Write a sequence for this structure.
């Protein structure tokens, strides 16, 4: 294990902003720390870096407990949230900053910076000042500066928060390539679900200082540990049908509910990608009218309204949409390929063992 947190709590006064958090990051892993703003992500990163002391619990780096080890001795590269480069220093001097502190010799420093400029696609920019760079270039210089002294761990706090959407996408792809080339253990903080899903090997999901789930992008998406994760990672349709005679109904939709009492309300969740849509009205059981189409890139999101007024969201590829001749206002048939019964309350989550998740049944077989 490269980094390990065991039962880490951080309080500011009486306010616990990180509560009993345990997770580990493997050597060479690219880990995302994902959660809503104010959830304690930056605080976790600062404790790993040694900029903040845990109130309780331990931090280990490569098996060594580092609670009492100084920032300098932890050998960590850190790119801070909204942290600008030194404005009055050139790219070269910015990147050399950490090396100067570590008293690297001039020739070694020059060789290292040349290597980094090449690796980061910044060749020829070493004499420029930060204001003469694009947003994407500035972020790359910031990461080069953090990596210059060969840290054993790289911590990036919302590294792409300040750049626009297009450059953000480029930087994400670039980060994956860079990580692939260097294989430095990296934790990056983001509040952007897509960014975490796209970039990370594994994701730690936080809300209000509590660790909700750790897993690969696939795991947290397909097997969310609770409703918070399910809703936070990607879109989710949620319906609240009422049980009558072991069938839960809402509008025209029906879900088998064996063992549930009459009058009980279930929470049913399903992903937009689990909704199948056809322009052939005889293909699927439910009929709806396509109300809105959102273009998201290669994928589309469509919103459909059932006669009862129920709105269902689906995802489909552009090809499928075009092939079926779909457009807003058109009547379609649909079915839900898989769904889950969610825990009743989103706010007060029961212990994981009590969450009433069921393996998603195939609707076609059940109804
Ligand atoms: N030095 C501090 N003193 C008091 N409260 C703090 C301090 N640092 C952070 N907090 C609080 O801790 C909570 C978590 O903050 P932070 O770790 O920055 O969350 P995130 O990075 O997930 O947005 C916030 O409510 C914030 O106001
Ligand atoms: Mg933060």
């Amino acid at each position: 294990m490269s980094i390990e947190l065991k039962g880490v709590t951080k309080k500011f006064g009486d306010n616990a902003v990180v509560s009993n958090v345990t997770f580990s990051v493997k050597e060479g892993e690219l880990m995302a720390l994902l959660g809503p703003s104010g959830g304690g992500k930056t605080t976790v990163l600062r404790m790993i870096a040694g900029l903040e002391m845990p109130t309780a619990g331990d931090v280990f780096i490569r098996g060594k407990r580092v609670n009492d080890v100084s920032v300098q001795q932890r050998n960590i590269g850190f790119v801070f949230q909204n942290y600008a480069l030194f404005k009055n220093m050139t790219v070269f001097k910015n990147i050399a900053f950490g090396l100067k502190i570590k008293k690297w010799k001039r020739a070694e420093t020059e060789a290292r910076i040349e290597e980094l400029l090449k690796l980061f696609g910044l060749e020829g920019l070493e004499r420029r000042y930060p204001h003469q760079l694009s947003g994407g270039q500035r972020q790359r210089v910031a990461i080069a500066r953090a990596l210059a002294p060969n840290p054993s761990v790289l911590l990036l706090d919302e590294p792409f928060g300040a750049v626009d959407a297009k450059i953000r996408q480029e930087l994400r792809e670039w980060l994956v390539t860079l990580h692939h080339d260097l294989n430095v253990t990296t934790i990056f903080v983001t509040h952007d679900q897509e960014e975490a899903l796209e970039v990370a090997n594994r994701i730690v999901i936080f809300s209000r200082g509590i660790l909700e789930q750790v897993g690969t992008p696939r795991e947290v998406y397909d097997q969310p540990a609770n409703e918070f994760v399910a809703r936070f990672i990607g879109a989710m349709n949620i319906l609240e049908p009422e049980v009558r005679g072991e069938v839960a109904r809402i509008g025209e939709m029906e879900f088998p509910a064996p063992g549930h009492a009459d009058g009980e309300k279930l929470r049913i969740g399903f992903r937009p990608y689990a909704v199948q849509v056809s322009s052939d009205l005889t293909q699927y059981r439910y009929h709806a009218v396509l109300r809105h189409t959102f273009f998201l890139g290669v994928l589309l999101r469509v919103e459909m309204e059932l006669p009862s007024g129920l709105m269902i969201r689906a995802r489909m590829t552009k090809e499928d949409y075009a092939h079926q001749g779909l457009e807003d206002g058109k009547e379609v048939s649909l079915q839900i390929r898989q769904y889950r019964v969610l825990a009743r309350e989103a706010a007060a989550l029961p212990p994981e063992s009590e969450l009433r998740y069921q393996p998603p049944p195939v609707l076609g077989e059940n109804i």
Notes: The longest strand covers residues 15-25. The chain has ten helices and 21 strands. Residues 23 and 180 are 23 Å apart (CA to CA).
